[in-house]
Structure formats: C-alpha cells, structure tokens
C-alpha cells in the first residue's frame, strides 16, 4: 500500500478532540502520513493551543490562520486558504470532522479540486436550519465521498436523503475515544479540589450559542435563572469568550460576580474541563458534544435548546431539552432523583478511531 497523505482538518475546540484519537491511531500505520491542518477558526490559546497540548498532538503541519469575522467572512477565508494549500500540497484524503465552518469550508475546497473527502460524525441532524451547524452538516454530507457515523439515527438520516449505503460506515463516537485516551489524567486532575468543591456537589454551566447569549433579555433571564439555581446547588460557570463579552456589554457580569455560590472560570483545557464534567451533579449547557459526554458518564444534562442533533442522549434519559422558563423546574427534578450511572452504548467504547482506520485501509486502493 502506498504512503497516503491524510489531512485531518481542525478549526474549533470540538474538532481537536475528534482528530486526536484518529491522529494517534493513524500514526501507528506505516502506510499513513497524517497531517494536521489547523484552520485557525479558534485562534485564542485557551480555545485551541491548550487542547493540542492536552491531547498530546504535535504542532499542526499547516496553520491557515483564518481567524474570526462573520460566518460568510470566516468560511470564505477558510475556503480560499485551504484551496491554496491543496493546490500546493494535495493530500490523498481529506478528513473533516463535526459541523463547524471549517468542516464545510475545507470539504468544499477539497471537492472542487476533486479530492476524496471523508466526514467523521456524519449524518447528525437537528432539523433546525436556523442553526449554522445544521447547514454545515447538510452541505458537508452531501458532497463527502465517505460518511462515518456515530449512531444508527445518523445512518437513517443519510439513507433517507439518498446517500448510497456503501458510502456509509457506522464507526461510533470519536469523542469517547478522546475521553478514554485521557481518562486517567482527567480523574487525577485536582481542579474540583482547587475550587473547594466536592464531587457531585455542584452544577457545571456552559453557554455560547447566539440564540442564548446574543439577546439581552434572554441572557438576562438566564442569568436570573442561574442565580436562583445556585440557591439549590453551587454552580461552576465556564464562561466562553463570546458569552463573557455579551455579559459585560449587557451589564450582567456583576450580578454573577456578586453571587458567592457561582464560581466563574475562563475557558478550560480539555483535561480540566472534563474533570469538572465527570465530578458534577448536573450540567446546564447548550453545547453539542457535552450532551454526549454526560450521557456516556451517566450525568444529568439540561440542554438549553429547542432541539438536538444527538437524540440518542434524549432516548437514554440522561439529557433533557429545556428552556429559560423550564430549566429551574427540571433541575429540581434532577436533584431529587438518583444519578443515572454510566451507560453502555454500542460503539461508544473508545475504539472508534480503530474502526475509522479500518475504513481507510479498505478504501485505500481507490484513493
């Protein structure tokens, strides 16, 4: 088998967690040359570089430096810069992961140059086309040659949209690979102790979606809800840069700072953040990946969204969709119930990267 240059595209924090297990698995193969392409979609140290360190990844082979801006500006920059890279150094296979602008942008650049593209975490759907991530998923899946899915519902979505079943491979949840790869370091990390907290005696909060943080009235109602929730359960709020900016702009930050039962933290590295997750009594979030991690760990999750592209987390009973008006009531119900305990889910076993490598090995002759 010829040596195959494989681009692993990462642009935002969730991407780094998904490429890490695959990079390490491919690095053990004598026929594969995995190369990390960092688009620069997240360019703050706390939002990218610290994750590379925690996940034991080398410096990216290529850094596109796309930066921020509007969705259109950022995506255009990613497409332009990745196209230039592929023209100069064409890979044998491009692997994009997740659903961020880098996922869609690099897939578009690669396919317009007739390069083979694989989408890891394909087939997820929320059904909500007002979410930028949903548009990214739909476009990426529609042009990818190989679709590697995390769960049976993702297979069903792809088949219903007319995708050839031979292009689909159910590989499992790559996020669980990242967790299991570092589970020892996560368990031994002492962040919870540093904060003076006890395991299962606090709630963890993360918020970043524009639908929750960009409207003054809605964010104000969420802040008031968190203040009320802290009376029942101390909270640790890991504040995303976007959310911090809105809290300051809307004059809401001082309310949180003045509440002794709410601990405000900046963005955390992967090991520190997962230490907070695994020791929490409940999580309040609008993230996608955290819904999966809490389901795997058996930790109640209240998701501040109208829908989710990860319905398996709802089906298994650990995740509940909530609104500003309902999350306090749902939190009280969670606190009155026993912890669910860790769940066994097919192909959420830490071996997804190995299954992906098997997929690449099978298709290598056509690359």
Structure, explained:
By secondary structure, the chain is an alpha/beta fold. The chain folds into 2 domains: 188 residues, Rossmann fold (3-Layer(aba) Sandwich); 151 residues, Rossmann fold (3-Layer(aba) Sandwich), CATH 3.40.50. 46% of the residues lie in helices and 15% in strands. It is built from 18 helices and 13 strands. The strands form 2 sheets. A 7-stranded parallel beta sheet has the order 3-2-1-4-5-6-7, with helices on both faces. Strands 10-9-8-11-12-13 form a 6-stranded parallel beta sheet, sandwiched between helices. Helix 2 links the parallel strand 2 and strand 3. Helix 1 crosses helix 7. The longest helix is centred in the first third of the chain and has 18 residues. The chain starts with a strand and ends with a helix. The model has no long low-confidence stretch (mean pLDDT 94).
Q: What's the CATH topology name of the largest domain?
A: Rossmann fold
What is the fourth-level CATH superfamily of the largest domain? Answer: Glycogen Phosphorylase B
List low-pLDDT spans: none
* Biggest β-sheet: strands ordered side by side in the sheet: 3-2-1-4-5-6-7
Return the domain count.
2
Average pLDDT confidence is: 94
Using the CA coordinates, give the radius of gyration. Answer: 20 Å
How is the secondary structure organized here?
Blueprint lengths: L3 E7 L2 H15 L4 E7 L10 H6 L7 E2 L7 H18 L4 E5 L3 H12 L4 E4 L11 H12 L2 E4 L2 H9 L7 E3 L3 H8 L1 H6 L2 H4 L8 E4 L3 H4 L2 H14 L5 E4 L2 H9 L3 H5 L4 E4 L4 H10 L2 E4 L3 H9 L3 E4 L6 H5 L3 E4 L4 H9 L16 H12 L4
Parallel strand pairs: 1-2, 1-4, 2-3, 4-5, 5-6, 6-7, 8-9, 8-11, 9-10, 11-12, 12-13
Helix pairs in contact: 1-7, 1-18, 3-4, 4-5
């Amino acid at each position: 088998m010829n040596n195959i240059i494989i681009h692993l595209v990462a642009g935002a924090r969730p991407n780094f967690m998904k490429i890490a297990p695959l990079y390490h698995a491919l690095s053990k193969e004598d026929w594969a040359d995995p190369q990390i392409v960092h688009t620069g979609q997240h360019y703050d140290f706390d939002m990218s570089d610290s994750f590379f360190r925690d996940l034991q990844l080398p410096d990216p082979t290529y850094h596109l430096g796309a930066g921020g801006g509007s969705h259109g500006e950022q995506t255009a920059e990613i497409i332009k810069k990745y196209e230039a890279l592929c023209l100069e150094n064409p890979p044998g296979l491009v692997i994009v992961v997740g659903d961020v602008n880098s996922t869609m942008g690099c897939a578009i650049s690669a396919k317009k140059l007739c390069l083979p593209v694989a989408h890891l975490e394909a087939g997820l759907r929320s059904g909500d086309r007002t979410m930028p991530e949903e548009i990214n998923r739909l476009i990426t899946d529609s042009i990818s040659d190989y679709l590697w899915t995390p769960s049976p519902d993702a297979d069903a979505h792809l088949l219903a949209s007319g995708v050839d079943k031979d292009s689909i491979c159910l590989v499992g949840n790559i996020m669980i690979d990242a967790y299991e790869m570092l589970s020892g370091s996560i368990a031994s990390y002492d962040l919870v102790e540093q904060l003076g907290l006890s395991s299962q005696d606090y709630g963890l909060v993360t918020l970043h979606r524009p639908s929750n943080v960009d409207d003054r009235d809605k964010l104000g109602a969420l802040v008031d809800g968190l203040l009320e929730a802290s009376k029942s359960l101390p909270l640790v709020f890991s504040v995303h840069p976007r959310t911090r900016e809105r809290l300051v702009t809307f004059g809401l930050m001082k309310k949180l700072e003045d509440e002794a039962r709410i601990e405000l933290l900046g963005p955390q590295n992967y090991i520190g953040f997962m230490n907070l997750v695994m020791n929490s009594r409940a999580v309040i979030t609008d993230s996608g990946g955290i819904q999966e991690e809490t389901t795997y760990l058996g930790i109640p999750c209240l998701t501040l969204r109208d829908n989710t592209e990860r319905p398996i987390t709802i089906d298994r009973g650990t995740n509940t969709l909530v609104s500003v008006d309902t999350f306090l009531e749902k939190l009280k119900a969670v606190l009155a119930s026993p912890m669910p305990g860790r769940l066994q889910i097919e192909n959420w076993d830490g071996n997804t990267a190995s299954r992906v490598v098997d997929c690449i090995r099978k298709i290598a002759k056509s690359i």
